[in-house]
Design goal:
three-stranded antiparallel sheet, 10 helices, mainly alpha, single chain, 266 residues, two-stranded antiparallel sheet
């Protein structure tokens, strides 16, 4: 039987359930770091859908999982991203924000990773909530043996980590208004000096979703350069906007509930 553990300091901020999820995310991103994979935007990542999390944590519903993940993101403990190769794959990726400062020795690739207070296997593979699972199984297997304990303070000299790619094209594709691209590129170069690219892109996607929800006409959508210069990816209004991959089948079904015929037929 697996033991689900958590950091009391994290639990004070976001609650016990969210702290347990956080420990799981930290464990698997450490595992990926040891194997030199899933490094994006200066952080180490792992992937899992809410459905897969719920299968691992049987005492939590998908709705509770979503609330816990939202708490972790809002508290700045975890970043949410999407690095799936297939456009239809809506599986979310998760990275502890502290992973941007982790040291790594990529020469350890292929070696075992010792466990310390964490023995929970990441099961399943990334799949969209409403699509069949067609993505190759790339999920890490339970660590075996007695490899180096990455949770210790005895860090070895680190190798250079991959340089963060310029993801302006991803931002521009996600942004709801395509205008003055040159100005937007200059604003992007300035913006990424103070914020992580994935956070800006996530904000652009939520702004685009908000404009669709409100039916905002193109002329009233901010120019991308103006939006970037004003750091509007951090707007409070965007925090409540849900992206398509964050909407559960239950949420969709709730929109199409049949009418109460007792009040219709008299």
């Amino acid at each position: 039987m697996s033991l689900h553990q958590f950091d009391p300091d994290v639990a004070k901020k976001v609650g016990v359930n969210a702290a347990i999820l956080y420990q799981n995310i930290v464990f698997w991103t450490r595992h990926n770091m040891a194997n030199g994979k899933h490094f994006h935007d200066g952080m180490w990542w792992t992937y899992n859908s809410r459905r897969a999390f719920a299968a691992q944590f049987e005492y939590l519903s998908e709705k509770q999982i979503r609330l816990c993940l939202d708490k972790l993101v809002d508290a700045g403990l975890v970043a949410r991203g999407n690095f799936n190769k297939e456009g239809y794959d809506n599986t979310s990726w998760w990275a502890p924000t502290c992973s941007s400062g982790w040291k790594t020795t990529l020469a350890q690739k292929g070696q075992g990773l010792a466990q310390k207070g964490q023995g929970l296997a990441q099961k399943g593979q990334p799949i969209p909530d409403s699509k069949p699972d067609t993505k190759p199984d790339d999920s890490p297997k339970p660590p075996q043996g007695a490899g180096e304990d990455l949770f210790s303070d005895n860090d070895q000299p680190a190798e250079a980590v991959p340089k963060v790619a310029d993801r302006f094209s991803d931002f521009y594709e996600a942004y709801p208004r395509k205008i003055a691209r040159g100005n937007a590129e200059k604003a992007w170069a300035k913006a990424v000096k103070s914020a992580l690219p994935h956070a800006i892109i996530d904000g652009a996607r939520r702004y685009a979703a908000l404009c669709r929800q409100k039916g905002t006409e193109a002329q009233y959508i901010a120019h991308p350069a103006s939006w970037l210069n004003a750091q509007r990816w951090a707007d409070e209004e965007l925090r409540g906007v849900r992206l398509p991959e964050e909407i559960t089948p239950q949420d969709r079904a709730a929109k199409f509930r049949p009418p109460n015929w007792q009040t219709v037929i008299r």
